[in-house]
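note to self — DONT lose this again. spent like an hour looking for the file last time. sequence + predicted structure for the chain T wanted, 211 res
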Amino acid sequence: DDDDDIPQLSSHTLAALQEFYLEQQQREGMKTSQGFNQYSIGSIEEDWQLSQFWYSDETASCLANEAVVAAGKGGRIACVSAPSVYQKLKEQDGKDFSVYILEYDRRFSVYGEEFIFYDYNHPLNLPENLLPHSFDIVIADPPYLSEECLQKTAETIKYLTKGKILLCTGAIMEEQAAKHLGVKICKFIPKHSRNLANEFRCYVNYASGLN
């Protein structure tokens, strides 16, 4: 019988698969029924293969508010590999600031002209209209805990910022963060929506509300 060669899913696997698809349908249904906000955290799901870990709602709000205050009225904010802060800033639509998101994940291109494709391996491969020292504050969260990643991301940060830097990375990167960006660790401890194995911290080079 030819059917013998066709792999069959076990009843347990099939049930688990059906449950997954049902949950996915329910999530999509909730998005539609709630007048889905494309800027809410979780609207684009984490991709762990890209080393993506979204901040908790409280942390994203805190960092977004800090950025608005630091940028000042009519300020320009750049979010480098920090999409959940970008999303929180967009929820504050109507406030007097502008924001851009520099991100490797092209799913964020749904945000239109504010999305700029960014690969930290090519730190200065940026659009011509992204002028040097044109942002009042740059918030960055390098995707990997390595000095190479931090050093290259630092090139981008220093190109973009007028001076203020808010860096989010592992506590183990404190020495390298000071070396490459002149930033110091804050008292504020950022949290993620899923617990990470590595202790995470914020670093700044200005008098911030995070201390």
